[in-house]
Amino acid sequence: MATPKQIRDILQSKLGDLLGTYTFSNGQVRPALFVRGSQQRPADVKVAGIELVLDETTEDFGTVLVGAGSAVSMFWKLTLTQYNRSATLSVVKTRLRQVFPDLMNVVHIPQSDSMYEQLTCSVPDYALYSEIL
Amino acid sequence: MKHDPSQAVDKARDKLLTQVYKATDAVVAEMDRRFTAAVSADNWDWPRGQSPRDIVDTGALRASQQYTKHSDGTYRFSWNVPYAAQVHEGGTFFDGSEMPGRPWTRRAINQMREDKTVQRIMNTQLKKSSGSLNPSSPGPLPTLGS
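The joint structure predicted for all components is written out below.
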């Protein structure tokens, strides 16, 4: 099974060019990619563009048969939020489909009159998907 | 009188399929009940005010739950209020505050998996057709998970 850092590195390399930025209170700017779990994003961080949050703990959806009979039961939950209200998540959604063909539980929530556009999905543990490395 | 074994097999198969359909209906009815129970349960963490609490404010989300059976044998559950997905998945408000996701469907399905609800219902229903598959040699059907 992969570690959160390994998944984070894959996401950074495959989606990094589409992500927005975090601007910290000291002026430091970082890619808007965050592993949520034991740490929380500081409240005073300013987010611009697309934020990608990876949940530190995996989800267990039971055994799923994939490919030529491999079994995957652990999935990583991703949450993408578009903080630019005049843009959408469509490009990153397409890229996600290309990088993770077995994306599951995709829920797209359009921007509303009070909330940002959001996409949640689950990707299989990459340990069984060496072709994406 | 000539005995046609294929007729007996067809009859047994039809009886088994009937029991499978009945079992599926029973599973779906149980899912319907479990989803409603999950929405109503006072065990959802909430960052503001009372916590834990249920997912009921106006009751519209819970009341909107429905399921439909399709011609291919699949069922589809839906909650027809515009904010259902946001309640289920959570989201971020324009002021930066966050609404945590409360995935009542996943919780209910996980509970059903843990207590082997589907297996239990299917076994109960299939036992009713026990002995009908092979009329010349009646015996119990194998149970799921055994």
